Amino acid sequence: MTEDSQRNFRSVYYEKVGFRGVEEKKSLEILLKDDRLGILPPHHESHAQVMMYRRGQYSDVLHALKVIRFVSDATPQVEVYLRMYQLESGKLPRSPSFPLEPEDEVFLAIAKAMEEMVEDSVDCYWITRCFMNQLNSKYRDSLPQLPKAFEQYLNMEDSRLLSHLKMCSAVPKLPYDLWFKRCFAGCLPESSLQRQGLG
């Protein structure tokens, strides 16, 4: 059996069981690259069902936090998101009065920025949650290289500014940690983080 006939057999089989386009290696690569934050599955037909499950999970976690009196109706929404994230990731402190960890401050800043851009609280939580998971799993190791990359980019775009900052000894005092760990959330106005429409 040639590879083409095997591919055609697999294609027909996979289509019968509901997997479309599996034989196309490029399509799979595109799908993997296109899964931006893992928010929604690639097939549009399942989006509504996935969102129904996510709304249910959101309600269940919120209810659990209210039962254990970690949040109430008066709790700011971004703090509710933080407590939900902590509960789901097994990092909920013993008491809501415990001081926040630095990563909690990062979560709150990113959740606040998302809240400005996303109206629905369930969507906002899921986007923030997935964003944080991506940040912590895929990009954490690259954070230490960002100050150097920033300086290289600034040198290409405005070398006079970089020279001035170096001359004033300001470069080492720039709040790189704050900027890059928070992805500029809480550092810049939310309007500058939103994609602006043309026209």
UniProtKB/TrEMBL annotation:
Task: Indicate yes or no for the key word Nucleotide-binding.
Answer: no
* Top-level lineage group: Eukaryota
Q: What is any one GO biological process for this UniProt entry?
A: negative regulation of TOR signaling
Where in or outside the cell it occurs: the entry states: Cytoplasmic vesicle; Endomembrane system
Keywords in UniProt for this one? Answer: Cytoplasm, Cytoplasmic vesicle, GTPase activation, Membrane
Question: GO CC annotation: what is one?
Answer: cytoplasmic vesicle
**GO molecular function per UniProt:** GTPase activator activity
Q: What is this protein called?
A: TBC1 domain family member 7
